[in-house]
Amino acid sequence: MVSKRGGCCGWLIVALVLALVATAAVVAIMKRKPGGGGSGRPPKPLPVPGPPGDIDSKYGDSLGIALQFFQVQKAGKLVDNQIPWRGDSALDDGKEAKLDLSKGLYDAGDHMKFTFPMAFTATVLAWSILEYGDQMTAAKQLDPALDGLRWITDFLIAAHPSDNVLYIQVGDPDLDHNCWERPETMTEKRPLTQINPKSPGSDIAAEAAAAMAAASMVFKSSDTKYSDTLLQHAQKLFTFADTYRGISSDTYPKLQSYYNSTGYVDELLWAASWLYHATGDQTYLSYVTVQNGKAYADWGRPTWFSWDDKLPGTQVLLSRVNFFGSKQTSNAENMGLKSYRDTAEAVICGLLPDSPSATGSRTGGGLVWISGWNSLQHATNAAFLAVVYSDYMLTSQTAAVECSGKYFSPTDIRNFAISQANYILGDNPMKLSYLVGYGSNYPQQVHHRGASIPSDAKTGCKGFDYLHSTSPNPNIATGALVGGPFQNDSFVDLRDNAVQTESSTYNSGTLVGLLSGLVTMSSIAKTFT
Questions:
Q1: Mean pLDDT over all residues of the chain?
Q2: DSSP string of 450-463, one letter each residue
Q3: How far is CA 13 from the centre of its chain?
């Protein structure tokens, strides 16, 4: 990942970005907004879908492509390598601590391993499998999803060698970003960074706990021993995060240029929610409702789901408990769950373009647009939450959500998710697929070291001629979801323009979930275990 202060984009690209963003201020608002709907009367409940039906080939094909990006980003000793221009790399990661940290995924277009976004990728990928594993199976894509998830959780297990130690970074971003080279040939030192009681990072420890708790349910039926191992790590990491509190980017200020965390209480709620689902232990449910709900959950104020802000995801995840019930919950816990669900509905109301409380931050083409850097992140995450919530409604035969007196059915919410997915796949003013490898027109200059350098090139550290080249990448980073358009729907396909052309692994987790939710219709399981 390039530093969020601009990194190697250069002043020319920064000026271009500022000029194009300024242009967005005069873009006319669309007369017709995709993903609309709504009525003044509550609709009747829709019938509960049956098992997975016919596969929508557009979403099935794009799902298969999206999953390949996890193969592109793999570090370590590759097994059954499917990417011809990739090979073994980072085999010595962790050796200075006598650990094997060779696995995991490279963060973006660089060769850093940041545990925070990597763990978030694992959590949402596991969530996607838990909700839509049957639909992935119908589309013949479950195995690659499981493979990508396990490659991350293997790393997380290795990165947690004792109860109160977690390695949160492999590599030095300054050294890494001063090189432009293939991962297979890198020779720079790759130092390790850890959190511990004296150097806390509750945000990262809790995210890793969430990832392992969610993944433990994914692997429970196929590999009980591995599932148990994941759950044990999750519980210990949660205790570590909750006991020794601190923000990782306060402990290590250099992180502020890359993954500047704004807090940790959202991760504590997120992790406890996943641990409740994984264990059924009421202690975790009480933690997120009675004990800490009012103080931490910010009920009634919708925000944007991201690697940094887990509150919207927690609200939707705990809505599941409210939708489908639990006989053991107390009145106080049920009141807390209702508050989470009410806030989840506020999130949904903010997304639907015809809702009275709809966000006005959209492109003319209908894409939710919150930030110029990696603009597709929020649209993808929001659409994933929307399709999940609509399926909770369908399965529970909940007729509608009410948004300031206007009612929206599960179909309306699903249509919003479809509008965002279709924009990503090419239904946009640029007629460009932002998913690399999908369709006939997609970005050719993805900001990605390995994709930009021929596999037989001898560059050493200083292969910057390939960064600045105007030629298409010699290798296709199949499945990469690039940063995305400016608010005026424009996109500049230049490798130096990392703001728009860099891809990040954490985008891929929710994209896989979104496409899996749309690939066909079916009811969801009322419990994960």
A1: 93
A2: HHHS-TT---TTB-
A3: 26
Using alpha carbons, select from 496, 528, 522 the residue that is nearest to residue 14: 496
Give the pLDDT band of residue 6 (cuts 50, 70, 90).
very low
Length of the chain: 529
How does strand 401-403 pair with strand 406-408?
antiparallel
Active site residues: 110, 447, 493, 502
Close Cβ partners of 367 (under 8 Å, ≥ 6 residues apart): 375, 376, 379, 420, 423, 428, 484, 485, 489
- pTM for this entry: 0.93
Residue range 411-422: average pLDDT?
98
The torsion of the CA quartet 238, 526, 315, 108, rounded to 10 degrees, works out to 70
Query: With pLDDT > 90 as the criterion, what percentage of the chain qualifies?
Result: 89
Task: Quick: pLDDT tens for 456-505.
Answer: 999 999 999 999 999 999 999 999 999 999 999 999 999 999 999 999 99
The answer to whether residues 156 and 174 touch, using CB atoms and an 8 Å cutoff, is no
Map residue 472 onto helix, strand or coil: coil
The whole-number average pLDDT for the span 166-179 is 96
User: Cβ atoms within 10 A of the Cβ of 64, count?
Assistant: 19
Contact between 141 and 148 under an 8 Å Cβ cutoff? The reply is no
pLDDT of residue 149: 98
Q: Is the pLDDT of residue 133 over 70?
A: yes
Residue 7: CA count within 13 A, CB half-sphere: 25
pLDDT at 280: 95
489 with 428: CB under 8 angstroms? yes
Statement: residue 29 has pLDDT above 60: no
Task: Using the structure block, give the residue that is written with the tokens 């300031």.
Answer: 404
Cβ pair 414, 36 in contact under 8 A: no
| Residue 364: Cβ-neighbour burial (10 angstroms; 0-12, 13-18, 19+) | middle
Complete DSSP assignment for 32-81: S-TT---BSSPPPPPPPP-S--S--HHHHHHHHHHHHHHHHTB-BS-SS-
Q: Is 214 helix (H, G, I), strand (E, B) or coil?
A: helix
Q: Report which DSSP code applies to 290.
A: I
